[in-house]
Amino acid sequence: MIKANKLTKFYSNGEAKIAALDNVDLCLDEGAFTVVAGRSGSGKTTLLNMIGLLDKLDAGTLTIAGQNVLQLSRTQRAVYRLWHIGFVFQSYNLIRALSARENVAYVLQLRGVAAKERRRIADQWLVEVGLQGLEHRRPDELSGGQQQRVAVARALAGTPDIVLADEPTANLDSQTGEQLMVLMRQLNESHGTTFLIASHDPAVLEAGKQLLRMEDGRIVERINPAPIKTK
Known about the structure:
Layout (H helix, E strand, L loop, with lengths): L1 E12 L2 E13 L4 E5 L6 H8 L7 E6 L2 E2 L5 H11 E4 L11 H11 L4 H14 L15 H14 L4 E5 L7 H18 L2 E5 L3 H6 L2 E6 L2 E6 L8
Parallel strand pairs: 3-8, 3-9, 6-7, 7-8
Antiparallel strand pairs: 1-2, 1-4, 4-5, 9-10
Helix pairs in contact: 3-4, 3-5, 4-5, 5-6
């Protein structure tokens, strides 16, 4: 699903250049559930931003689902994200004026899906993430864990090739964070969607089928932890 070779990204710090990514190689199979771990500044968020086409690389190659995405123009990248990549953010990034159903359906609306069909799909995903009956609630009427479940449903509603999640449990208590990770593993296994998650939360690290550790912009360790129970 993802094949990256020698990904390199520099940021300027005054006159000095800092390598946020330093010749990173990565290969993820379809259906992977991979967690990227590391301290703040290790490069894990930058790696997700590059794969999510939110920023430009300074060097390297990147293909997603067999397509060389680095050749896409800025407009083409936006279209590619809409159709192929789902995002789950630390701060939920829900639209405050929209209901849970409308937030989940938003990507479908951008794609031009008819209103009746996008409501059906949104409601289906809200059931899958355990929020049946809360379709009409706005974000400020939901707990943090419920808001993040809406965000997960939104990321998956368009059946993307890959879901990128950056610190998805950072604003949740430990129990809610563990429940969210069990849910995401269940969705990964039931739908076969590829997940790449950046986090330093132990609950997230334990949930990964594959764990990558980053330091100073490099992947320094690759391990396959024991599987967790998802039911």
